[in-house]
Each structure stands twice: as structure tokens, then as C-alpha cells.
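G.,

No rush on this.
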Amino acid sequence: MSADVNTPVGWEQARELAYQAGLAASAGAERIPLTAGDGRTLAEPLRALTALPAFPTSSIDGWAVRGTGPWRPVGRVLAGGTPPPLTEDGVCVEIATGAMVPDGAAALIRVEESVTGADGRVTGTPRPMPEWRLPGEEAELGEELLPAGAAVDPAVIGVAATCGYETLTVRPEPRAALLVFGDELLTAGPPGAGRVRDSLGPQVPAWLRRYGATITAVSGPVKDTLDAHLDAIRSALDTADLVCTTGGTMHGPVDHLHPALAELGAEYLVNTVGVRPGFPMLLARVPGPDGRPRFLAGLPGNPQSAVIALISLVAPLLAGLAGRPFTGDLPLVEAAVPVPGRGRDTHLALAALDPTGRTATPVGHVGSAMLRGLANAHGFVVVRPGVKVAAGDLVPFLPLPLLPGERA
């Protein structure tokens, strides 16, 4: 693909291109312990290994009765046991919540709605609806509970455990490395004397982890020479499916990323995106040392722009690599105030949500080089090209990522 920076790809198209590229490169599966599944992605459907429940299960503490009362107690049924059947009318057994209902039982009576007489017999009236769960009420044997591509979270782990799973078959976690370009950056202490502190090296790995990646390496600042860039990229590609770089996406005198990609035989998937902030950013496919494609995402050097590149290109790419579903559809929120557009580009406006999560208010300190606004925001109001947002309008909202496995 051409590297022409004068023809940026539309933001929504760029996200779809990144996702499809990742999905095409997604492959493989691994079996892991059930308890290690949080944040992973199912590689095959999760099916019920047995009917759920597997046997008729009491929903109450009380009595399992047969025939008409009063009933003569003949035993007790606790959870975890297999009771003998009730074979004659006029008898009952004491039963605990979660216990298996014996064959022959006609009804269950709650202990608080029963009376035990002086003769030891039990009287009471069963409720109209049965007080037990029937086999297969939640799922039939072999029924698909979750499809391949579903994200595993604690609730999914619980469902799998209920079915009797001890392991899960999941997609391999995408591996990501970060290279910080710009040998003028400080890596410790406060900025000064013409040098700024690197903020992307500490934060980008955390964003990548929230999008489901395993971090294999964080390196830099990389020296501002073509040879140093090539060496760093080749080294990162040895262990990573995705290499993210910071800075160097333009064509200045010390911007060596484009020449390095040409030297590596890379194919541009996206080269600049019509989004503000965030210009310029890129995504390229690089031949891997084992013949399997790898990816390089070029993030701008300005911190907020780099984060926008992450959510625009890296997040959908990682979703594809993990085999997860991805959709460009976003939830709608109400704009509390007017939000300006950016002409022919999409505008991602940092915003905070009210306690209801239904109204978004833009935050301050949102320059490309600023992070204060990002630290006070929940995500971005998406203003599409040519759109003017007025107070009260419903607008798409792109939330910042949760921790792996968390529900929105």
C-alpha cells in the first residue's frame, strides 16, 4: 500500500482495516487451567458437559412428599447425596437446598410453611409452582453456552466450573513490544534544559495489557539512527506479534521509521488516519522471521495522540489477533455542551461521563502533548467529519479500556 501521507484513511475504515488484518493473522489455540482464564478469549465454543442442573435439585429447605398428607418422615436428604426413591404414599423426607430430589416425590413443602405434629407427622400445603429445578432447566447436555471468540471473565469461569470444566481452550495472547524513539527523551527525573520526560514508555504497556496483550519487551529511547531503528525493530519482532513505536512517524531529519519499514519489506495497511488529535499514525504488516506476518504500529510522539493511535489502530488489531468479535458500533451518550468538529477529519474529544453514564462533558487540558485531560476522562466523544454537535445531541462514545475480563 502506498505511504502517501496526503490521503489519510477515514477513522472508522482504519479501525476495520486493522481488525481484519489481525483476524486474518489469528491462529492457534492453547489449553490453560480454568482459573487462569480471566481476560482470555475462547478458541472453541463452551458447551455444557452435562445437563444443568444434572439432576432435580431442591430450591428450598423443607420436605419432599409423596401422596397426600399428613406425611410420615422416613429420612433426610442433604446436598451431595443420592437419595433412595419414595416408594409409598404418605411418606416424606427432610430435604436441604441444593439436594437431589428423590424419585417418586410429588412436591416440596417449605419448612417454614409446614408443621410437625405430636405424632411426628408433617402437614403443610405445597405451593402451586414446583420448588425444585428440573434437569436441563439452565442448559441441555451439549448445548452451546458461549461461542468461540467470547471474552472470558469471572462469570464465564463460573459457568465453566459449573459444567465441570478444569481447563479452557483459548486463543494465544497477542504478544506486544514497545520501542520508544527519540534519544533526547529523559527516562528519569523532571523535564528541563530542553529535554522532556518520556511518558509513553511507562504508560503504553499498561494500555496494551488492557487490550489483552502480553508485553515481551519495552526498549528505548532508541538512538536516532536508521541502523539503531532497524536493529531495535528486528529484535522486537523476534518475540512479538505487534511492535509499537513512539514518535518518528513523520518525515523529519531524525524520523527513521518509514525508511526502516522500507528496509524490512513492510506493507502499509494504514498510513495516516483522518482523526484529530492523532496525526500522523500508521500500521504496517512486516514479514516475520518464521514466515508468519507481524505488525508494527507507529504511534505519534505526542502523548494524547499516541493514545488515540492505540485506540484507533492497536485495539482493533489486537481484537483480531485474539480472535474476538469487533464492531465499530459505539454506545450513544448525550453531549452536555456543544462539541466542535474538525472539518473533514473525525474529532475524538476527551470527555467525562456523569454518574449515570448517559451524559458526556468534554474535559480541559486536551492538547496533543497533554495528558492531564486524559487522566480525568472516561473516553472520547466521537464527532464524525462534517458534523456539528450541539448540547443535547446524542453522539457516539468510545470508552477507554477496562481491565481484561471486566464488564462495561
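When you get to it, here's the other one too:
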Amino acid sequence: MESIIEINDIVKSYKLYDKPMDRFKEAIHPLKKVYHKEFTALNGITLSVKKGDAIGILGKNGSGKSTLLKLITGVLTPSNGQIRINGKISAILELGAGFNPEYTGRENIYLNGLMMGFSREQMEDKIDSIIEFADIGVFIDQAVKVYSSGMFARLAFAVSINVEPDILIVDEALAVGDTRFQTKCIDKMKELKNKGTTILFVSHASEQVKRFCNKAIWIKDGKIEAEGDSSEVVDLYEDYMKYYNVEKDEIISESTELDQLDTPNEELLLPSNPDILSSITKVNINSNKVKTFDQIEIEVEYEVYEKVIVDLLLGVALYTPDREYIFGPNTHLEKVEVPNARGRHVVKYIIPRIPLLGGTFQIDVGLFNNEGIVCLDYKQDIVSFKIVNKYFSEGLVYINHKWEVIK
């Protein structure tokens, strides 16, 4: 399949000056004295993107992620190397970028469409769907300088997603906006992906990359450190951030199951905030002190305030006290359906034989939709338990094994 984006040995360097005057002094110095320091944001990036790929881009702040996206969109030009784009790009790099603060939301829709290469007549056919998606009411005819960051997010997404691009670029914009709007954006991005739109997606929420993208790249110090299947790259990146990141200097349980309890739905008190779609109301554990191979039961009570939440999933994660991730299954990955209609529900998570050895462990519980991309509610360290044994082994987890004496 032909590449829709082809990047060959891209380098992007900047000249950094200690003082603004140094730039002028360097320009006029008769002996060409150098007053700047060279900073290379990207150093030899080569990447081929196929049509229909959804690629997550991972990396610490300052690693070069946003620089790469700006080069692809043409906002920046490379110092060396070549970029070939075969399609129309729609990008959300910085919320409100390209918006004239004195123009109304409606006028900015036409302005952004013009910058993307659409005529006014073509935008006339799209403007109703864009306004409906943005859902900012009467503010659509107000100057955008009075918009909140959430309104910027809605309008920027609405324009970028509803112009049928060949390539959609999203840089951390999902971090702004309420849960309901995030869900709508992810649904629309899925729709575009299914239609063959190529998506480049930057997010510090690596689980979003793992669940939404089929491929990923990890940029470290301006170079591609790893690329390939999104799950594999995310695991490499998270392992690095946990153990090898100088700034911060999968164990599988024997068996897990979910037991859904049939609990009558009492009348709910709906929250005053309409953006709260669901919430975790109670979490209990069968015992706070157990032994290795005992049964652990986590009972989760939650409420659903929508008529139905499509793709609702429940996740339970196990951590050490210093937040090392041990195990975190969820109902979507294990194809377990949990109640998702309006009401109060109770689900029990069971580990029949806990394989962990001595220590204190913490439980996180989360409600998500869209395959875990959008978080509806999350309770960190909601319950904990301690494992105490007579001495019979060492380490963190007991692994089934055997010994064979050869001679």
C-alpha cells in the first residue's frame, strides 16, 4: 500500500540566543562571530505512514513530538531531509490556533475552511454539521475571544473532524473538554478511522494510544526509539518511564473472574452536573489481611445516570504502595458485559488464588467507555490489603514451578 506520509531523515534545529540582542549582533558581526547555541529538536527521523493507520506518538515533554507534527502540517520547515504528503491534512495542534479572536465562531469556521483549501460554497454544505457537533449554543455568533478553553476545544474539534480530511492530526487536544464531548470526539475519530482516514494522535495518556491506535512510535531525544504495534511500543515506553527515566530515577494472575450481582435499582439522585455520566459509589474488599493463595473479592457499586452508556467497562488495577503497576484487567478486554443502563449496579471482581507474596497492596477502580479511552470515574487507592505469610518463598509473586535433579 502506498504511503500517505513519507518522512526521510528529517532534522530540525533551532538557534538559541541568551539575549534578543545577540541575534542582531551575530547578523552584523564582520567576523561572523557565533552568539547562538544549536538545539536539535529532531535528529534523523524516518517514518512511513500508510493510509488508514492510526498512529500514536509517545514521548516526554521536549522529545520532539509537537515539532514533528508541525513539520508534517507545514507550520515548520525542516533543516534537512524531506517530507512527502499525499492527502489533505486537518490538524488540531494548539487550541484556537488559526482562529481570529475578533471573529465569531461562525466566521472562524469559514476562515479555517478557507485555510484548509475549501471554498465558501463547500463550507456552506458543512457548516450545519460543524455547528451541531461543537454544540456551544448562542456563542457560535459571539467573538471567540470570549470563549473558554472548553469552547475552543469544541469548535476546533468540530471544524477539524467534520471536513473529511485524508489525514487528521490531534496533539493533546483531548485533555480539554468534558467527558461527554471527549466521548463524541472519540466516536467521530473512530468513524473517520473506519472510513480510511489516517490519524496521528499525540497523548500523554498512553492507555488511549494502546486502545485507539494500531501502531505507535516513541520519540526520545529527537530520535525514534521504537515503532510498531501500539501495545508493544506503549509497554516499552511505560517501562522506560518507570525504571529508566533519570527524572524519576506484565505479571499475570492465576485466575480472575467477574461475578455480576443482581441488585435492584433504587431511585437515583441525578447529579446537577450533566457531564457526570456515571460514578463509583462504593468499593469493598472481603478482607484487609490475607495469605498467599487466599481468595480476594472486590465488590464495586456504581451508578449510571444516562439511559444507556454504550461500551461501558469496569477496570480494577493492583499496585504496590509506590505505584508500581502489577495487574489491571478490564471487562472490555475480557469480553464481560456489565450493566450499563440507568440505575445502581454492583459487580464483584474475584481473584480465586492471589499469587502475591508478603506486602501491602492497593486497588484502583475505574469506569470508562470507548474501549477505555474516555474515563468516566476513577478511584485511586480506594481499598488496600496486606498479605502476611509464614516464610515459604521470596519475591513479589509466587510462580508455579518444579525442580528436577538430573544427577
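The chain has two domains: 3-243, 257-387. The chain has a mean pLDDT of 86.

Enjoy the weekend,
O.
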